[in-house]
Design goal:
Layout: H1 2-13, H2 16-26, H3 30-33, H4 36-43, H5 47-70
Helix pairs in contact: 4-5
């Protein structure tokens, strides 16, 4: 029952980016083994929006690496 409530909270109380971050933290490596459309469906978002979130994460990680190199 608690798992169902947590899942409901995630879908209703969190935005897509937060759900994506939580999914990545909770299931590391799963994203590489499962089709992107299935991950998007689990998160309650479209595949296009999922792609945009992934692209944004890659750009943020690259920017962080660049700042760390410059330091």
């Amino acid at each position: 029952v608690a798992t169902g409530l947590l899942r409901e909270y995630e879908l209703l109380g969190m935005d897509a980016a937060a759900r994506y971050e939580r999914f990545s933290a909770r299931y590391p490596g799963l994203e590489a083994r499962v089709a992107a459309r299935h991950v998007a469906s689990y998160l309650g978002i479209t595949a296009v929006h999922s792609s945009r979130l992934r692209r944004g994460r890659r750009h943020a990680a690259a920017a962080l690496r660049t700042r760390l190199k410059a330091s």
